[in-house]
């Protein structure tokens, strides 16, 4: 090649590199501007969809960032700029997962996470000890983050979720790079990780849900497991064999135990299967590449013993085991049906105008494609791995295939009977494995293409990955798109319940739409949940009407903006009509005690039917207000919208300032005279 030709080619490479730098700059600028727009648009009330409520500028910036990252990586997946492109995609994914924190949500997660919030507060204030919790790892870590950064516990928990998502997205490509020592495979794995396929909004979610936290941590275990299996123990001292990767892998396995023992049990089954299969190969085919990996016996033994010691000391493991066995027994003998929760979900979906095929396409189509790619990777590895052939990570992929043969039936056991929702928890664990192995399969499929086709196939593959990325991320948060309400917990809901709980009559039963305020009591009231908080709940318009006409006793009835929007928007008035919910405030005999713009509290007295013949609103004492309180007939107990309620915990951890009540005099919610 002449000097002029070499110089011309060098000039083209330099211009191409400058173009990629410019594209990266546009991508970083896009996500920076979008994040600033989201930061300056905090939530002012309950949001049924975080997608619709977040400024369009953020989503446009995220799309530009992902497109820029994909374009830079497809041009050359092997240089430093490609790594910066992956960093851009990683940052964008973390910011999307952290939107509840970016947009100043009071909390995110209206079910289990509210209970976990109460436990985290109790752990931080010393009302609970570390060993009192079945899965204290996440709660303790969030508490440490709160103490170190001077944050409220609720906000620290939001940030902790975003941190763990960052860990998840980082270690997926690192695991694939440890399996397949080529940059292209790591790039495919990075974009696969950005999809967050493991979080299906059925039983795994992007919130402080402990099993989901365990799934977020799982790629760390997989990375160290792959590194350990592919490491060479020859020439290592005894100290190095016991420490180093061995000790580090054991530590992360035990960390997963503290985050969630069920995830750790799956890890024990995974590594235990690998250890057993390895033992068989070393005895029957010692020259096979499968026998050359490093043995896991010590790690398996210690992890299994620690799981047994920890788990058998907590009642939850016996309850979960009993539920699974009862469901299996009921399915075998015909008293229950397999996939009962799925069937019920299908019925509900049809009631709101959807169907299981539509939900499957939105939630599980992309994971299904990756499952096929993973199956192909395992089959290819198993069939091509022979004595004396180069390994190239194929032995580890094959070991994962063997582990799948054991984990699969164990997961399917949870599909039986009325515990079938547990299956979708385990599906999150399985999809994390599928994401890693599927990325290997997609890379291997690309290598099998004729060289002349690769220049055409590469940009097509990136476009497909970006489309799959968008399809996955539009369903990663619950929203009406997938017929679910957002899990946003608003300031108005927290403040309203905080004040109502503070001044309640402890003898009065609570009720609500679908459920009572037990979760709110867990989060906002220290100690044991009182029996009255569990609620005489209603599930349909007819049940609501019956409770109003014939109350079982005096009742507090809380209705939040989330309740109303969930029933009328997400569930399309399937069980409650908009008219019936909006008419609550005008029911005779149902006293409207409080209203702060996002939370309404009603007081219903037993023996007074709401048919227009009962006592009128506004009569002194009937509202359950003590002297000095605002009567229902003369105005709501809270006026002027959002208020800062009194009585936060001793450290102010719940975010409610002690002594800051703006109510017009002290009052007590109590039973009627």
TrEMBL record:
Ranges for region Disordered: 610-673
Feature: compositional bias, Gly residues: 621-638
Keyword Transmembrane helix part of the UniProt annotation: yes
UniProt KW keywords: Membrane, Transmembrane, Transmembrane helix
Membrane-spanning intervals of the chain: 21-41, 56-74, 81-102, 154-171, 178-199, 211-230, 242-259, 265-281, 293-313, 364-385, 397-417, 423-444, 456-477
Keyword Transmembrane helix: yes
Name this protein carries in UniProt: Glycosyltransferase RgtA/B/C/D-like domain-containing protein
């Amino acid at each position: 090649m002449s000097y002029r030709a070499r110089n011309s080619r060098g000039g083209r490479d330099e211009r191409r590199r400058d173009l990629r730098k410019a594209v990266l700059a546009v991508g970083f600028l896009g996500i920076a501007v979008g994040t600033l727009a989201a930061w300056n648009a905090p939530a002012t009330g309950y949001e049924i969809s975080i997608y619709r409520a977040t400024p369009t500028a953020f989503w446009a910036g995220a799309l530009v960032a992902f497109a820029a990252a994909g374009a830079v990586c497809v041009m050359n997946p092997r240089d430093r700029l490609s790594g910066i492109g992956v960093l851009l995609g990683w940052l964008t994914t973390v910011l999307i997962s952290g939107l509840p924190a970016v947009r100043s949500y009071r909390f995110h997660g209206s079910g289990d996470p509210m209970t976990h919030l109460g436990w985290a507060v109790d752990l931080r204030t010393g009302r609970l000890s570390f060993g009192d919790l079945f899965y204290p790892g996440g709660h303790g870590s969030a508490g440490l983050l709160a103490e170190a950064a001077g944050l409220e516990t609720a906000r620290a928990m939001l940030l902790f979720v975003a941190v763990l998502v960052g860990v998840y997205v980082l270690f997926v490509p690192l695991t694939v790079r440890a399996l397949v020592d080529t940059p292209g495979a790591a790039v495919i794995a990075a974009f696969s990780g950005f999809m967050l396929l493991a979080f299906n909004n059925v039983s795994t979610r992007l919130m402080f849900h402990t099993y989901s936290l365990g799934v977020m941590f799982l790629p760390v275990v997989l990375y160290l497991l792959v590194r350990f299996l592919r490491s060479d123990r020859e020439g290592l001292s005894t100290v190095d064999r016991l420490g180093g990767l061995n000790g580090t892998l054991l530590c992360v396995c035990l960390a997963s135990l503290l985050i969630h023992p069920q995830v750790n049990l799956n890890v024990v089954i995974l590594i235990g299967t690998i250890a057993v299969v390895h033992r068989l190969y070393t005895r029957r085919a010692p020259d096979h590449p499968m026998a050359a990996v490093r043995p896991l016996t010590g790690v398996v033994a210690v992890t299994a013993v620690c799981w047994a010691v920890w788990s058998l000391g907590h009642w939850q493991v016996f309850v979960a085991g009993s539920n699974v066995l009862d469901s299996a027994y009921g399915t075998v003998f015909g008293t229950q049906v397999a996939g009962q929760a799925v069937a019920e979900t299908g019925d509900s979906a049809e009631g709101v105008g959807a169907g299981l095929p539509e939900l499957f396409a939105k939630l599980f189509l992309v994971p299904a494609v990756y499952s096929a790619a993973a199956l192909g990777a395992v089959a290819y590895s198993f069939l091509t791995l022979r004595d004396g052939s180069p390994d190239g990570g194929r032995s580890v992929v094959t070991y994962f295939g063997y582990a799948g043969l054991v984990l699969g039936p164990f997961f399917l056991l949870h599909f039986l009977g009325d515990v079938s929702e547990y299956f979708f928890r385990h599906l999150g664990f399985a999809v994390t494995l599928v994401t890693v192995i599927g990325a290997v399969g997609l890379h291997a499929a690309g290598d099998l293409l004729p060289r002349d086709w690769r220049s055409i196939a590469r940009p097509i593959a990136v476009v497909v990955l970006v489309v799959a990325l968008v399809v996955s991320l539009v369903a990663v948060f619950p929203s009406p798109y997938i017929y679910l309400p957002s899990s946003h917990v608003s300031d108005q809901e927290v403040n309203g319940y905080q004040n109502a709980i503070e001044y309640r009559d402890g003898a009065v039963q609570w009720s609500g739409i679908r459920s009572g305020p037990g979760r709110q009591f867990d989060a906002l009231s220290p100690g044991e949940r009182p029996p009255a908080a569990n609620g005489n709940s209603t599930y349909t318009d007819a049940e609501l009407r019956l409770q109003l006409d014939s109350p079982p006793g005096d009742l507090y009835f809380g209705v939040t903006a989330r309740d109303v929007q969930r029933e009328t928007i997400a569930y399309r008035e399937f069980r409650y009509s908009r008219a019936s919910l909006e008419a609550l405030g005008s029911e005779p005999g149902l006293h409207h005690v409080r209203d702060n713009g996002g939370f309404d509290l009603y007081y219903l007295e037993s023996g007074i039917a709401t048919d227009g013949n009962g006592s009128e609103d506004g009569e002194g004492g009937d509202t359950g207000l003590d002297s000095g309180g605002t009567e229902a007939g003369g105005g709501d107990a809270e006026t002027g919208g959002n208020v800062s309620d009194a009585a936060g915990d001793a450290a102010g951890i719940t975010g409610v300032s002690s002594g800051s009540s703006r109510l017009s005099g002290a009052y007590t919610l109590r039973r009627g005279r």
